[in-house]
Amino acid sequence: FIIEDTRHIIREAAKKSCFVCCKMGASITCCETGCDRTFHLPCAPDGECVTQYFGVYRSFCWQHRPQQALQPCPSQDNTCSICLDTVEDKISYKTMGCPACQDARFHRHCIQRLALHSGIAFRCPCCLNQELFMMEMLTMGIRLSKRSPPWESDEEVGPSHQRHGRCDAATCHCPRGREHVEANGPWQLWLCSSCAAQGTHRHCLSLGNTTCSWECNTC
């Protein structure tokens, strides 16, 4: 029955065109009653569509997607709390905010990357609220990994209260080994600015003196 259902879905999708790219084979339909917009999952970001990756996995087109109800905050400086680049001055598909503190703003792609990396420890990067924040992000279409975050893995970084203390560059050039760290100079250890679960000696990745941050390949 599962195989036959899958074949039926494929046959039906072949008849439908994606409203974003206009190509056939769109298998996702907006779940709003009376809306017949269909789209490919990879086209969803360009069409500003939302798919909720929990419960019954509902999908919405740009017109019927859920909207965040956040009040403008006078202290908001229009800076993404994650990458520190500029965000829009209003809440939109690409610019999201925290429902708990009402102040944090971030790009959708930044919070999505943080969600996949943080796993079940996903929370607001500013106020650290978890329950309200996580439910809001899931509703707004952010996909969450169900794994434990890397910094809580004994195999990767040891106990969560310990600061990462070794060079993880593919080739470590320090003559005293990966564990050797100095306060300044070529053997100063830089931690990933996003997860703090990976590190590198400044010299091992040729990080110049003007470098302010570094991100590992995972982030």
UniProtKB/TrEMBL annotation:
Q: What's the name of the protein?
A: G2E3 ligase
InterPro entries hit by this protein: EPHD (IPR034732), PHD-type_Zinc_Finger (IPR051188), PHD_PHF7/G2E3-like (IPR059102), Znf_FYVE_PHD (IPR011011), Znf_RING (IPR001841), Znf_RING/FYVE/PHD (IPR013083)
The encoding gene: G2e3_0
Listed under GO cellular component are:
nucleus
Metal-binding as a keyword of this entry, yes or no, is yes
Q: Which PANTHER family match?
A: PHD FINGER PROTEIN, PHD FINGER PROTEIN 7
Tell me yes or no: is DNA-binding among this UniProt entry's keywords. Answer: no
Ordered alphabetically, the record's keywords are:
Ligase, Metal-binding, Zinc, Zinc-finger
Give residue ranges for domain RING-type.
Answer: 80-127
A GO molecular-function annotation: zinc ion binding
The UniProt record lists the PHD-type domain at 1-65
